[in-house]
Predict the 3D structure of the following.
Amino acid sequence: MKAKIVAGTIIALIAVAGIALVVSSTQLYPKTPEAVEVECEGCETIDRPSDIEPLDVYNGRIEDYSSGQSDCEGRTEDWNTAVCLHNTIIRWSGESEHAVDFWDSVSKCYWRWDPDHPTEWCYPEWADGRQDLDVHLVTIANNDIPFGHSVCGEYKGGGMEDFDNWRFFQYNDGDINPGEWQMPCGTDNENTKVRVKSVFSISCRSGGSEPVIAAWEIDKNCDVSSRVVGLPSDTKDEDTTWINAEIEDLEKKPEMQIAAWMIDIGEKEVDIWVYELTPENQQLDDTMIGEWKVNVWEDQKPPE
C-alpha cells in the first residue's frame, strides 16, 4: 500500500515540500496534508482530513486503539488504551514492507492520538502507509530491573547480526541507543536482551513471531554482544491457536489487566503487557502455561 498527496494548488505543494525538508526521511509520524489518499491492492481509496498536532510539540505516543471493518472502512468497537506493543504494531503496519502480507489483519485495526485528537486512522495509514522499509518487531527485556518493552527495528543492510546495522525507534525517538530509557543497560545480575522478531501472525492487540532474526545482550557497562539465536521449535498452528485462546480467557478477567501480548514460537514464550501490576498477574509471571513460559511486563511509559 502506498500513499500520495492530493494536491490543491501549487502553493500547497510547495508548503508540503517545505515541511518535508524539515522532517527527516525516517519520519515517525503521519504527515499532515489536507487529505491523504491511500491505495492498496484489493481495497478502496480512503480520503481523510488530518488534525495531527505539529510534530515538534507531540510526544509521539499513541494512546488509543480499536478494531472494526476490514479494508480500513471504519471503526465499530470502543476505544482501548494502547501500550507499547500496540504502538509498535501500528508503526510496523505503516512502515514495514512485510506488513503488506498481513493487510487482511491490520486493515481491521484503528488508532487515534488521544481523545483530544479524535481523528480515526487505520493501522496501515501510519506514515502515509508507505510500507517500504525493512522494519521488524523488537522486544527489549531485563527481568532484574524489571523492564519489558516493544519497539520497531529497521534493518539497514549488511550483516544482520551486527547491532550497528539496525535502527530502533518508538514514540518520539527515531534512533534508540543502549543506555537510553527505552533500551537500558544491563545490571550486575542480568544483561538486557534485545530480540528482533519475524512476524508470522498479527492482530490489533497481539502478535506472533517465528525464531528471532537477530539478538543481542547489553551488559551493565552498555557494551553490546551478539546472542545465539534459538533454533526453530516444533510448534504447530494448533499450538499457537491454543495459547492464544488461553491468554484471551485470562484477558477477560479484570484483575489480570492484560493489554497486549506477543507469542514467540522460537523461544516458546509469551510476553504479556499489562496496564498495571496486580497480585494476580504477578503470580502469572515466570510460570508455564502448558509448554509456554510466560513473561509479564508492566507497560513502559516515557519518563515524566
About this structure: The chain is about 15% helix and 30% strand. Residues 237-251 form the longest helix (15 residues). Helices lie at 10-22, 84-95, 103-106, 237-251, 279-284. Residues 1-58 have pLDDT under 50 and may be disordered.
